[in-house]
Design brief:
- With about 290 residues, the chain is an alpha/beta fold.
- The protein folds into two domains: about 100 residues, Ribosomal protein L30/S12 (60s Ribosomal Protein L30, Chain: A, 2-Layer Sandwich), CATH 3.30.1330; about 170 residues, SPOUT methyltransferase, trefoil knot domain (Alpha/beta knot, 3-Layer(aba) Sandwich), CATH 3.40.1280.
- About 30% of the residues lie in helices and about 20% in strands.
- Strands 10-9-8-12-11-13 form a six-stranded parallel beta sheet, with helices on both faces.
- The longest helix is centred in the C-terminal third of the chain and has 15 residues.
- The two termini are about 30 Å apart.
């Protein structure tokens, strides 16, 4: 009897559990993998694709395979959540979930170490941090704009950000595969590291008096934009070297985060002379193969 499975969705790819050597299907729409061996295999082979692991709240033993999976998630800083059995059944689409289910993304996150090594070879890398984005449509649109305006890589928070699901992919209109997206364990530390190496870190906030045109965005730059409700969280805001705001007409409703990001990226590209259009592969970060 199979003890692992994935809910039906479109465009599956195959992977194998190291423990069972049996195929585990992880589907393109961003789906739930359930069962002990399935989740163990996913963590073994596609850990960067795991957004969150759900556990049956009635199974809280401090031994056995479920406890081992919990410990591994803590070690790898993968978010976990205990939910009632009925909720886990709803997520998995079956009661035969063995007390555990993992939410997968439609795309593997890139290895942050590969990204850091790559951008350090570029003269003026451009990185984007969309912080606390909860709406998948907004995140997809941000990814689309980032690809259009020559962003080298996107870094996301481990928590408080929507996963790379089917809605994100739809709104990114094919651009999900054309840009590096990472979800580092220590985003704050990486920003501090890059700041010390000379990167300008610019945060976009409402009611900031300085427009982006008054900040030099031509050198190594990291742009941070805040989510629909939380804006830029304090721990990221303190990393910023500059805070800017998009000038808007008096009385106009504020731009949503995807529109504001597009405006900010356009200004950055304008200052850089739209150099990404020249197709200079020597000054562009390659998209790393994650599968």
């Amino acid at each position: 009897m199979a003890d692992h499975s994935c809910r039906q969705a479109s465009r599956p790819f195959a992977m194998y559990s190291l423990n069972t050597n049996r195929k585990v299907s992880v589907h393109h729409s961003g789906d739930i993998v359930h069962g002990i061996h399935a989740v163990e295999g996913l963590l073994d082979e596609k850990a960067r694709r795991v957004e969150r692991v759900y556990f049956d709240s009635s199974r809280q033993s401090r031994s056995g395979p479920l406890f081992s999976i919990r410990k591994r998630c803590r070690r790898e800083r993968i978010p976990t959540q205990a939910v009632p059995a009925i909720r886990l059944t709803q997520l998995a689409g079956t009661a035969k979930h063995q007390g555990v289910a993992a939410l997968c993304t439609v795309k593997d996150y890139a290895d942050i170490e590969h990204i850091l090594a790559g951008i350090r070879q570029l003269s003026s890398p451009l990185l984007l941090v969309p912080a606390s984005i909860e709406d998948p449509g907004n995140l997809g649109s941000i990814i689309r704009s980032a690809a259009a305006f020559g962003v080298d890589a996107i870094m996301l928070e481990r928590k408080n950000t929507v996963p790379l699901n089917a809605t994100v992919a739809k709104n990114a209109v094919g651009m999900l595969e054309r840009i590096n997206i990472a979800k580092p364990r220590n985003l704050e530390g990486i920003l501090g590291e890059l700041k010390n190496e000379g990167h300008t870190i610019v945060g976009a906030i409402e009611r900031a008096n300085r427009p982006p045109s008054k900040v030099d965005l031509t050198g190594p730059t990291i742009l941070i934009v805040g989510g629909e409700h939380r804006a830029i969280p304090p721990y990221l805001k303190k990393s910023c070297t500059h805070l800017v705001g998009i000038p808007e007409a008096a009385g106009a409703a504020s731009l949503n985060v995807s529109a504001a990001t597009a405006a900010l990226l356009y200004e950055c590209s304008r200052q850089r002379g739209f150099r990404y259009r020249e197709n200079d592969e020597n000054d562009k970060l390659s998209v790393y193969e994650t599968n």
